[in-house]
Amino acid sequence: MRSNVSVVPAQNHSYAFARQPILDRDSELVAYELLYRDSVKDEAAAVIHPVLATAQVLMSSMLEQGESILLTGKELYINVPEQALDWVEDWVCPKEQVVIELLEDIPATEDNIAKVDALKKKGYKIALDDFTIDSLAKGFLPYADIVKIDLMAVSREQIEQWWPILKRYSLILLAEKVESHEQWLWCKAQGFDLFQGYFFARPENVSGKTFCSSHLQVLDLINKLSDPAVSISELEGIIKTDPWLYYRLMRYASNLCLKREISISSVRHAIMVIGMVRLKAFLMLISVTRVAAQSDASIAQMFIVAYMAEALAGDIQELNTDTAFLAGTLKAISVALGCSVKVMVAELKLADELKQLLEQGYMESGDFNYMSIAECAEKFSRQGCDSCTGCYMPTLRVQQHYEQALRWSDSLMNTLVEEELPG
Question: How many other CB atoms are there within 10 angstroms of residue 316's CB atom?
Answer without folding.
Answer: 15
